[in-house]
Write a structure and sequence with these properties.
Oligomer: homodimer
Structural class of chain A: mainly beta
Radius of gyration of chain A: 16 Å
Largest interface: A-B, 46 and 46 residues
């Protein structure tokens, strides 16, 4: 249907042009702490740029209306931005290599999957399916303008099954 | 009782000598994303040192025996290390300003509380109360030896209520 955006499963391979998937499944891992803990190692490297630093924040997102209208994108040209869900609810990742509607991709992430957008990658702000969901966010603090926003021709996402 | 370690609640004030508590409650916050999300901002700054970089990993920890014996501490002299629980179970934070038993502190964190240890702060490896619990970990990757471990006179923690 014209104007509707298809929802794809989030996989490392599909997301590779945009950044990294943060998940234990399939990741390089090894035992630590006398075998009591498994380390799924270096899923992503924070990129705060040469003059920035990586900060840790919590984002508390609320569910949007269904269908969701995607009419804008933003990006952070100076640093990466990672989102890791703190509760096990699926959520949506909308991103694009170019800031126009035909380039949009929509991935459904599980509650065990986070993402890190590479610096400069267009994406929609957080879209959650639960009434409320918290994320640990690792992004850049530093000098300069690290936020660009564009309006795009609207697309819709229907989240009801 | 000699040899037993008291469990304290985890508060920002009590933990301040060791690093930062990562929690939304009480944190500086503001609305973003057209009001659909609240940002609890810059709860911690990752410190990977001058020649390191901050990496994101997942640690999957398994529950220890009860009582827990605390007989060693470790520290990372070159960078900070942050732990954020990815499921809402209480867990234990054991830390010390000096690497000997009388300096030990044990904090019970809720599932909505993470911590970031400052570089060089002694702490025990992850101690979880659920059978298994995942954490997002932000720590340092880079040259040099970033792990020191010491054995200490044992102390015990009784976790059954």
């Amino acid at each position: 249907m014209t104007g509707m955006l298809a929802i794809e499963p989030l996989t490392e391979r599909a997301f590779a042009p945009f950044g990294r998937v943060l998940q234990a499944q399939g990741a390089h891992h090894f035992p630590i702490n006398q075998g009591t803990t498994t380390r799924f190692h270096a899923l992503a490297v924070a990129d705060p740029g040469a003059d920035g630093r990586a900060i840790l924040s919590i984002f508390r997102a609320t569910r949007c209306a269904d269908p969701i209208e995607i009419a804008m994108l933003e990006r952070h040209p100076l640093g990466s931005q990672a989102f890791m869900p703190l509760s096990a609810h699926d959520w949506l990742v909308v991103t694009a290599l170019q800031p126009h509607a035909p380039a949009l991709r929509c991935f459904r992430a599980t509650g065990a999957q986070g993402v890190q957008y590479d610096a400069g990658v267009w994406h929609h702000p957080l879209l959650v399916l639960a009434p409320e969901q918290d994320f640990l966010v690792v992004d850049r603090q530093g000098p300069g303008d690290n936020l660009e926003m564009v309006r795009i021709e609207p697309r819709r996402i229907r989240i009801a099954d």
